[in-house]
C-alpha cells in the first residue's frame, strides 16, 4: 500500500463561510494503479489531490504515504518529501520557460543532488521514453502543448517517485496530443509500475483507467475497479 | 548554485524591455551621482589646495601682537635665525617673509582700506605662485621702484589699469603716517576675489625704504611638501620659538579642515539618496516579476524546490539587475570623472564669478578615490539585499496549492 487516507476532511474558511471540500474520505492506493478521480466541479477532486500530494493540510483525518504520516509534517519536510516521493503533472505551466526540455527534467534531479553524469543520462533516457529526444535543447515556448506535457511527465518521472499526481493533464490539449500523452502514461504505468492518479473530466483518461473513484460533495460516491482497459 | 545562477540570469531577460529600463535607471542614477560627487569633491579639494598654495600656506609665523594689530611694530625678532632654520628643514618646500601693514589706498576718485604686503618677489613666487596669477603687466623685481601689484577686481573697482597712479598711506614703526605714490605694475587674479580686493603687493625692500626702517618681517608663510606634516612641524618650531605665534592651516582656517572631512561623507550621502530612489524602482520591478510568476513559483515549490532556493533565485535576479546597472554606471562615472579630472570643467559660463567670491576656482577638476568606489559597492550590495526582501517575502508566502491554481 502506497497511499492511505483515513477519515480525511477539509473545510475551507471555517470561521467566516465554511465550505466542506472533503468529508470523511477513506481510500487506499497500491503500486501500479492507474486511477481516475472523477466528479462534478466542486466535488473535491483537486482538494483530494492536494491533500495526498502534501500541498495542503487536512482539517481532520490522516494521510499515510509509504508508511509515513504526512498529516502533521512541517512545511520544509513536506517539500523534501514531495521531491523524493511524488511526481506532479499540472494542467498547464508545468515547465520553467527559461530552461530547455532536458534542463527542465534535469532540474528535479539537481534538487535531489544527483551526480551530473547520471543526471544527464537519465534526462536523455526519459526524453527518449516520451519520444522527444530530438527536442532536448528546445525551450518550452517552441514546443506544442502536447510536447510540453510529455516533458512534464518525463520530469515527474525523473525524481523516481512512488506515484504521480496529474490534475487535468489533458484539459488544454487537442485530441491527438491528448491521446499521445495518455498512451505514454499508460505505457509507463505498465512498464515502470508507477502509480498514476488523475483528477479529470476527460473521458479519454477515464477510459484508460483501471480504477475510477467518483467524488460527490467531498465524499466517495463510488469506487470501481476495472480489470480490462 | 550554477543552475540557480543560470535560471536567475535567464529570468531577468524574460521581459528584456523592463529589465533594460531598470538597468538604465540604475546606470544613469549612479553615473550622475558619482559624477556630481566627484565634482563636489574636486571643488573642495581644489579649494583646499588653492587656499593653501595661493593664500595661507601650511604654517604661518607671527609676532603674537601682529594678530591683534597688523603693523610693523610687531615684527618677528631674529628673522635671520628663523630663515636659516627653515632653510635647513627637510620638509619645507618653500617659505617667504613678508612685511605687512594696514593702510589706505587712494585714487583721484576713491579711497579704501587695504593691506599692503611687502614681499621678497622670488621667495613669494616659490611659496604662493602669485607670479603665475598675473593677468597683465609684469611681476615685481628687485630694483623696480614704486611699483605695486593689485587684484583685478580691486583694479576694476578703482578704475585702475597698468601704469595708473595711486597713493598708499600707512604707519611706520614710530607711528608716523606716511604716504607714497605708486604705479600699477601688474594685475593678478587668484581663486579668491575677497583676497584680491583686500591685498596689494609691493617690494619689501621698497617698504623699508618708504618707512625709513630696516627691512622688517612680521609674517612668515611656510609651504611644506606634505600637508599632513603641518602639525608636527608646527610643534617642532614652537619648541624652538616659544614666543612666536606659530599656527597651522587648520588653526588659521578651520573651515578648510571641515571641507576635508565633509567631502567624502557628503558624496556618500548624495549617492545613498540616489540609490534609495533607484531602490524603489527596483522593488517595484521585482515585485511585478514575482506577481507574474505566481503559478510558476507555486509549481516549483510543489515539485520540491525549497524556500531557500526560492530566496536564492530572487536574490540572484535582483543582484544581476542591480550589478549590471551599477557596474556600468560606476564605470561611466569613473571614466567621466577621470577624463574631466585631467581636462577640467570650466564652470565660468554658469556662475564662475560667484564661485570666485567664495574662494572656489571656476575650473573644477572632478576627483574620485578608489576607496570611495569600494564604499559605494558596499552600499549597492546593501541595496540589493534590502530590495530583494520584499519580493522574496511575497514569494515565500505563496501556498503551492493556491498558487498552482492561479492561472
Give the helices and strands, then pairings.
The complex is a heterodimer of chains A (229) and B (407).
Chain A lengths: L2 E10 L6 E11 L4 E5 L6 H8 L7 E6 L2 E2 L5 H11 E4 L11 H11 L4 H14 L15 H14 L4 E5 L7 H18 L2 E5 L3 H6 L2 E6 L2 E7 L4
Parallel strand pairs in A: 3-8, 3-9, 6-7, 7-8
Antiparallel strand pairs in A: 1-2, 1-4, 4-5, 9-10
Helix pairs in contact in A: 3-4, 3-5, 4-5, 5-6
Chain B lengths: L1 H11 L3 H41 L2 E4 L16 H10 L3 E15 L4 E9 L1 H8 L5 E4 L9 E5 H7 L6 E7 L5 E12 L4 H6 E5 H8 L7 E6 L5 H11 L4 E4 H4 L1 H39 L1 H10 L3 H37 L1 E2 L5 H6 L5 E2 L5 H27 L3 H4 L4
Parallel strand pairs in B: 3-8, 5-7
Antiparallel strand pairs in B: 1-9, 1-10, 2-3, 2-6, 2-9, 4-7, 5-8, 6-7, 11-12
Helix pairs in contact in B: 1-12, 2-10, 2-12, 10-14, 12-14
Give a quick set of tags describing it.
heterodimer; A: 229 residues; alpha/beta; Rossmann fold; 6-stranded mixed beta sheet; 4-stranded antiparallel beta sheet; 10 strands; 36% helix; globular; B: 407 residues; alpha+beta; 6-stranded mixed barrel; two-stranded antiparallel ribbon; 15 helices; 18% strand; elongated
Number of strands of chain A: 10
Give the helix proportion of chain B (percent range): 55-70%
Oligomerization: heterodimer
Count of DSSP strands of chain B: 12
What does this structure look like?
The complex is a heterodimer of chains A (229) and B (407). Chain A is of the alpha/beta class. Chain A has a domain at 3-97 and 162-225: Rossmann fold, CATH 3.40.50. In chain A, 36% of the residues lie in helices and 27% in strands. In chain A, strands 6-7-8-3-9-10 form a six-stranded mixed beta sheet, with helices on both faces. A four-stranded antiparallel beta sheet of chain A has the order 2-1-4-5, covered by helices on one side. In chain A, strand 7, helix 6 and strand 8 form a beta-alpha-beta unit. Chain A is globular, with a radius of gyration of 17 Å. Chain B is of the alpha+beta class. Chain B folds into two domains: 2-52 and 256-403, no CATH class; 64-243, no CATH class. Chain B has 15 helices and twelve strands. In chain B, helix 1 (2-12) crosses helix 12 (307-343), helix 2 crosses helix 12 and helix 12 packs antiparallel against helix 14 (370-396). The longest helix of chain B is centred in the N-terminal third of the chain and has 41 residues, at 16-56. The two termini of chain B are 29 Å apart. The A-B interface holds A 46, 50, 53, 55-56, 75-76, 79-80, 82-84, 87-88, 90-94, 96-99, 103, 107-108, 110-112, 155-156, 159, 167 and B 3, 6-7, 10-11, 14, 295-296, 299-307, 309, 399-401, 404-405, 407.
Amino acid at each position: 500500500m502506497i497511499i492511505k487516507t483515513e477519515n480525511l476532511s477539509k473545510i475551507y474558511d471555517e470561521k467566516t463561510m465554511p465550505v466542506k471540500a472533503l468529508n470523511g474520505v477513506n481510500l487506499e492506493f497500491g503500486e501500479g494503479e492507474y486511477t481516475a478521480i472523477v466528479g462534478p466541479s466542486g466535488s473535491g477532486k483537486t482538494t483530494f489531490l492536494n491533500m495526498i500530494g502534501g500541498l495542503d493540510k487536512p482539517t481532520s483525518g490522516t494521510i499515510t504515504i509509504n508508511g509515513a504520516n504526512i498529516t502533521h509534517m512541517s512545511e520544509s519536510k513536506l517539500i523534501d518529501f514531495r521531491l523524493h516521493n511524488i511526481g506532479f503533472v499540472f494542467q498547464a505551466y508545468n515547465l520553467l520557460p527559461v530552461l530547455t526540455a532536458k534542463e527542465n527534467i534535469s532540474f528535479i534531479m539537481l534538487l535531489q543532488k544527483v551526480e551530473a553524469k547520471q543526471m544527464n543520462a537519465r534526462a536523455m533516457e526519459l526524453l527518449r521514453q516520451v519520444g522527444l529526444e530530438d527536442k532536448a535543447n528546445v525551450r518550452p515556448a517552441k514546443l506544442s502543448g502536447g510536447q510540453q506535457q510529455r516533458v512534464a511527465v518525463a520530469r515527474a518521472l525523473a525524481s523516481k517517485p512512488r506515484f504521480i499526481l496529474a490534475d487535468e493533464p489533458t484539459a488544454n490539449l487537442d485530441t491527438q496530443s491528448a491521446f499521445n500523452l495518455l498512451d505514454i502514461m499508460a505505457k509507463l504505468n505498465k512498464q515502470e509500475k508507477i502509480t498514476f492518479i488523475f483528477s479529470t473530466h476527460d473521458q479519454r483518461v477515464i477510459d484508460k483507467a483501471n480504477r475510477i473513484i467518483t467524488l460527490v460533495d467531498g465524499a466517495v460516491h463510488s469506487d470501481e475497479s476495472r480489470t480490462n482497459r | 548554485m550554477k543552475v540557480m545562477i543560470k535560471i536567475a540570469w535567464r529570468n531577468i531577460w524574460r521581459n528584456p524591455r523592463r529589465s533594460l529600463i531598470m538597468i538604465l535607471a540604475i546606470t544613469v542614477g549612479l553615473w550622475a551621482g558619482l559624477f556630481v560627487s566627484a565634482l563636489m569633491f574636486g571643488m573642495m579639494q581644489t579649494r583646499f589646495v588653492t587656499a593653501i598654495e595661493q593664500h595661507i600656506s601650511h604654517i604661518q609665523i607671527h609676532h603674537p601682537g601682529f594678530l591683534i594689530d597688523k603693523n610693523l611694530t610687531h615684527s618677528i625678532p631674529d628673522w635671520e635665525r628663523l630663515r636659516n632654520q627653515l632653510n635647513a628643514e627637510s620638509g619645507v618646500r618653500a617659505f617667504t617673509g613678508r612685511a605687512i601693514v594696514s593702510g589706505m589706498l587712494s585714487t583721484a576718485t576713491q579711497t579704501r582700506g587695504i593691506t599692503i604686503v611687502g614681499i621678497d618677489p622670488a621667495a613669494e613666487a616659490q611659496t604662493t605662485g602669485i607670479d603665475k596669477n598675473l593677468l597683465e603687466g609684469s611681476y615685481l623685481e628687485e630694483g623696480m621702484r614704486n611699483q605695486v601689484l593689485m587684484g583685478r577686481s580691486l583694479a576694476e573697482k578703482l578704475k585702475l589699469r597698468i601704469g595708473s597712479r595711486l597713493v598708499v598711506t600707512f604707519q611706520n614703526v614710530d607711528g608716523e603716517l606716511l604716504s607714497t605714490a605708486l604705479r600699477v605694475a601688474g594685475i593678478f587674479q587668484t581663486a579668491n576675489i575677497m583676497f584680491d580686493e583686500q591685498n596689494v603687493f609691493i617690494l619689501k625692500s621698497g617698504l623699508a625704504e618708504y618707512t625709513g626702517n630696516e627691512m622688517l618681517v612680521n609674517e612668515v608663510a611656510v609651504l611644506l611638501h606634505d600637508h599632513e606634516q603641518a602639525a608636527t612641524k608646527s610643534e617642532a618650531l614652537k619648541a624652538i620659538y616659544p614666543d612666536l605665534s606659530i599656527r597651522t592651516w587648520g588653526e588659521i582656517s578651520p573651515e578648510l579642515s571641515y571641507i576635508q572631512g565633509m567631502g567624502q561623507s557628503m558624496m556618500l550621502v548624495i549617492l545613498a539618496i540616489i540609490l534609495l530612489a533607484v531602490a524603489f524602482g527596483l522593488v517595484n520591478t521585482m515585485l511585478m516579476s514575482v506577481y507574474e510568476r505566481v503559478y510558476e513559483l507555486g509549481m516549483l515549490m510543489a515539485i520540491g524546490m525549497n524556500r531557500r532556493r526560492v530566496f536564492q533565485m530572487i536574490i540572484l535576479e535582483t543582484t544581476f539587475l542591480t550589478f549590471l546597472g551599477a557596474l556600468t554606471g560606476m564605470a561611466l562615472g569613473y571614466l567621466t570623472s577621470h577624463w574631466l579630472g585631467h581636462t577640467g570643467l570650466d564652470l565660468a559660463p554658469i556662475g564662475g564669478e560667484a564661485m570666485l567670491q567664495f574662494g572656489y576656482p571656476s575650473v573644477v577638476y572632478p576627483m574620485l578615490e578608489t576607496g570611495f568606489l569600494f564604499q559605494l559597492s558596499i552600499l549597492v550590495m546593501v541595496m540589493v539585499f534590502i530590495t530583494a526582501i520584499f519580493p522574496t517575502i511575497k514569494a515565500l508566502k505563496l501556498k503551492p496549492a493556491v498558487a498552482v491554481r492561479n492561472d
